[in-house]
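User: I'm preparing a small set of examples for a lab meeting where we compare how different chains pack in three dimensions. I only have the primary sequence for this one, and I'd like the structure in token form so I can line it up with the others. Please keep the answer compact; I'll paste it straight into my notes.
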Amino acid sequence: MTLTPAVAIAGVVMVALTFYVLFAGADFGGGVWDFLASGPRKKEQRNVISHALAPIWEANHVWLILVIVLLFTCFPSAFSIIVIVLHIPLTFMLLGIVLRGSAFIFRSYGSTADAAQQWWGRVFAIASIVTPVLLGMCVGAVATGIAWGTHPASYGEPTHLPFVTDFILPWYTWFGLGVGLMALALFSFLAAVYLTVETEGTPLQEDFRKRALWSAGAVFVIAFGVLALSWSQAPMVRRGLMAGSWAFPFHVVTGVSALTAIAALYTRRFHLARTAAAAQVTFILWGWAASQYPYLLPPTLTIEAAAAPMRTLVLVLWALAAGACVLFPSLYYLFRIFKMQRSA
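Assistant: Understood. Below is the structure token output for the 344-residue chain.
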């Protein structure tokens, strides 16, 4: 692999997507556990989820914004295909993000009447469940392959194909649904593991430990289902995952991370479980990216072919370096301030 400016920026896109999954994904998972809160500590479970989300739920979307900006600036042809062909799930995903954030604010700072709290709680929970599934279905559509040069969006021209063929079938597949469910399971797993650390020394820690173990099992089952579906619906990804030169090391580190997370949860070493769970999700995400390299949109549009002019790429890399000097210290300060407030 040659590290060209286009490949470097594609790598930055994956880094930003990784941060989004690890932080915003866990927030979505928190919404799942808010919906599934049960038992005598149901109210306390929802309260601790709200307190865990409050400092960073909005800041997490910085990473998604960065992904979008980099795609339309540095890979405009791929961006055009994605937002046209997948405009339906992307639109509903955006609505889910907005509704989820609005519901969280109104439930936290609006009326305390039971009816209002229940209404905004339902909106928050439903948006937290649906949005990750739609995100996963978009990823599944990309992995399945949108043929560059054969789709009318490649040329910016209207299509004469049926609407369903153009804008429903690319993402509404069993493989896409499987990836969507896997995203939901992974986000729920992350949230439950993170919340075991947030509730250290309280009875709630055991509640979230059990949820983390159940969601880890769900991830395992769904992952095998998605792999089975990839044989017929995403052959390029399947070949990369099964036969690529990097495949065996990736499977080993992903498996070790998963087993470490589960073992740490069983032995109640929650800080280790949090690190291992984050590593597991990271390896899964990068395994998908590596499986379709060098294609940005399989089966024909490569990273280099989709890239903007070299001058643009170089300027963007300089801008990213400068922005990182502001972004990472700011996020560190944000986490530090709110963690100090919580411990106080």
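A couple of notes for your slides: Residues 148-156 have pLDDT under 50 and may be disordered. The first strand starts at residue 295 and ends at 297.

User: Perfect, thanks.
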